[in-house]
Sequence to fold (275 residues):
Amino acid sequence: MPELPEVETVMRALAAKLAGRRVVELVQRRPDLRFALPAGLPGRLAGRRFDRFGRRAKYIRVDLDDGHTLLLHLGMSGRLVLDGPPLEPPSGPHEHLSFGFDDGSVLRFVDARRFGMLDLWPSDRLAEHRWLAHLGLEPLGPDFTGRRLRALFAGRRSAIKSALMDQRLVVGVGNIYACEALFRARIHPSRPAGALAVEEAGRLVRAVRTVLRAAIDAGGSSLRDYVQADGELGNFQSDFRVYGRAGLPCVVCGAALVRLVQTGRSTVSCPHCQR
DNA sequence: ACGAGAACCTGTTTGC
DNA sequence: TGCAAACAGGTTCTCG
Fold:
C-alpha cells in the first residue's frame, strides 16, 4: 500500500476532482473487503455530496453532507482510480465498488488482496472510531519532535524499525519509508527503540519528515499495483536508497546493502553507514 | 503489558 | 518449461 505519501497524494487528487460532487449511484459487488461493508451502503451514499477530504494516518476521510464521514483505507494493494462511465461492467475482476457522480465521473475501488477497509461513521464522533482511536503522532504534524519520539520509544526493547511502523506510536510510516528514514538517519534498524540517544531521535525525526515530504512532492511513489487517483504514476520510487536494493551498493559508501527480516517484513540497510 | 508471529487474500517473482 | 515457494505497500488477532 500506499504509505502516508501515497495516501496523501490520492486524497489530494480526489479532493481536486470530487469535492462538491454528489454520488448518483454506487455499485457494490461484494459484501466485504477486509471487513463487512456497512449495511445498506449503496442506499446510504446515493444522493450524498462529497464535501471535504482529509487524511488521518493512512486513512482517507470524506465528509458527507449528512453528518457522516466515509473512511477509506487501501490496505496493501488497494487503488482508487478516477475514470468515467460506465459503472458496468467493472474495469477488472477486483473492482469491488464503483461510485458514479453527478458530473459523470466514476471512482473505482480496486483491490486484489482485499485488505482494504471502508466504513461510515458520524463526523462529530470520528475520533472514537475503532480504526482511529489508538493512532499515534502524525509525522508531518507539529508534535512530531525528537523529544516526543524518544519519550514514545522509552523503555521499548523492540527493534526501532518495528517501533517506527507501530501505528499506535507514529502513523503513516510503512515498510518502505521506515527503511528509507533509518538509512538517512544512519540508525541501524535492529537497534532497540528505547536506546535512542537524544541526538539520534532528532536525526530520525528529521529523516522521516524529509523522506515523507519528498515522496509527497514527487507525487507519491508507485509500486506495481499502485495507481494514483488521477491515473498518473508517482515517481519517488526512483529515489529509494535502500528499499528493494539488497545486495546493491550503498549510495553513500558502496558497501553491499543487506536484507534482514523483522516481524515478518523485509528490511534493507547499510551495514557500514547505519549503526 | 509487550512483542513476535500468524492470519487475512491474490498476484507476481524466484528458484529448483 | 513447470511447479512450488517466497514475497509484496497493512492491520488485527492470538499466543507466549
About this structure: Strands of chain A lie at 23-28, 50-56, 59-64, 68-73, 79-83, 95-101, 106-110, 117-122, 258-262, 265-269. Chain A has six helices and ten strands. The longest strand of chain A covers residues 50-56.
